[in-house]
Amino acid sequence: MDLAARLEQLEELIREAKSMPLSSSVLVNREEVLEMIAEMQEALPDEIKRARWIVRDREELLGKAREEGERIVEQAHEEQLRMARKEEIVARATAEADRVVSEAEERARVMRSEAEDYVDAKLAQFEISLRKILEASQASTKSLNRTLDQVEVGRERLRGPATAAEAEFARPQEEGQLFDEEEER
């Protein structure tokens, strides 16, 4: 029988024992009470062993739970640090990417500006060259017209006074005009 059951029996024995008149004392069977106490003393080491075993198991479970809790907290802390490092790396990478993009955009703007300046300078040179060619062409045309006028004057002098019909025949042909058209006149 276990210790708790024996204690209940002892309590019951004392409650049911005869009371002494005018006192709170009771009469109990000494042998019976001593026997119960002896049985409890024998059961006590087993109960203590069980209690110690329960306490040891409880402490072991608490230790394991504490270790598991500490491990979980440590893992959470490590994960937090890892995530913070990742965020820091991402932030640095983003900042570096922004810097590279800004530099590339600035280089592109400078190159575009330099290219526009170069093209503008080349177009200005081309315009100057074309103006010179146009002026030379116009001067050549004027010179050719003067030369042509002098040739006509020279031819007229050579021929002397001519009749209107001869003058018409001597007139240079316009481009696209046929000889037959002259004869029809």
Give an account of the 3D structure.
This protein is an all-alpha fold and 185 residues long. It has a domain at 3-127. Helices cover 85% and strands 2% of the residues. It is built from four helices and two strands. The protein has a two-stranded antiparallel sheet with strand order 1-2. Strand 1 (18-19) and strand 2 form a beta hairpin. Helix 1 (3-16) crosses helix 2. It is rod-shaped. The chain starts with a helix and ends with a helix.
Key structural traits:
mainly alpha; two-stranded antiparallel sheet; 4 helices; 2 strands; rod-shaped; disordered C terminus
Q: Count the DSSP helices.
A: 4
Class based on secondary structure composition and strand pairing: mainly alpha
DSSP strand count: 2
SSE order: HEEHHH
- Proportion of beta-strand residues: under 5%
Task: Tell me about the largest β-sheet.
Answer: 2 strands, antiparallel
User: Mean pLDDT, rounded to whole units?
Assistant: 83
For this structure, the quaternary state is single chain
Give start-end ranges of low-pLDDT stretches: 176-185
User: Tell me, what's the shape?
Assistant: rod-shaped
**Main β-sheet, spatial strand arrangement:** 1-2
Radius of gyration: 66 Å
Distance between termini? 160 Å
Helix content: over 70%
